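Good morning,

Attaching, inline, the backbone tokens for the sequence recovery test we're adding to the shared suite. The designed sequence is right after.
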């Protein structure tokens, strides 16, 4: 798996990866699983390190069933995509298809088509609570040196600041939803002890 990650990271263009990763991200993704293992933690770290998104799964919770009378169930299979995929395609999600006689459920990556324009930028109010953001904005705003009409300068500065805030958000905040899921799984792990 490590070689695959290295290869995929070198591609450069937006990409997705799918398959049976043979590990769940969180204990809740496996029936009869209540502990956060080192394999789960490492899988989560790789997803975060590569800035991948685990899309919503429609049609059920588990992609694999096994054991006597299918007593064990887990979400081992998934699509992982880069943020560029999400911003390029509308309504991306994963859908479970009917399970034939095998133990893994086929998954379909579905979307409503290509987006027809850039996604709007948004400023998250919670960013204001993060130490250093105001200083970053102030510093970057004065660093931009442009000439021309005031409206042109303002538009260019806002465009540059938007890009800087996107980068800052990924580097400092990360993906809030996956960070929240991970934090909740850790709380569940420690509560169980």
């Amino acid at each position: 798996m490590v070689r695959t990650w290295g290869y995929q990271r070198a591609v450069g263009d937006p990409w997705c990866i799918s398959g049976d990763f043979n590990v769940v991200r969180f204990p809740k993704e496996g029936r009869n699983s209540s502990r956060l293992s080192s394999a789960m933690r490492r899988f989560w770290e790789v997803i975060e390190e590569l800035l991948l998104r685990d899309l919503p799964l429609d049609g059920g919770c588990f992609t694999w069933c096994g054991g006597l009378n299918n007593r064990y169930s887990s979400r081992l299979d998934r699509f992982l995509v880069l943020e560029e995929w999400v911003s390029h395609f509308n309504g991306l999600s994963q859908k479970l298809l009917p399970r034939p006689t095998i133990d893994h459920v086929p998954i379909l990556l579905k979307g409503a088509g290509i987006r027809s324009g850039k996604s709007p930028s948004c400023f998250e109010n919670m960013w204001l609570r993060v130490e250093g953001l105001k200083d970053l904005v102030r510093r970057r705003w004065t660093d931009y040196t442009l000439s021309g009409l005031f409206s042109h300068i303002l538009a260019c500065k806002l465009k540059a600041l938007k890009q800087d805030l996107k980068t800052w958000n990924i580097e400092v905040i990360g993906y809030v939803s996956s960070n929240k899921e991970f934090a909740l799984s850790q709380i569940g792990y420690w509560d169980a002890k």
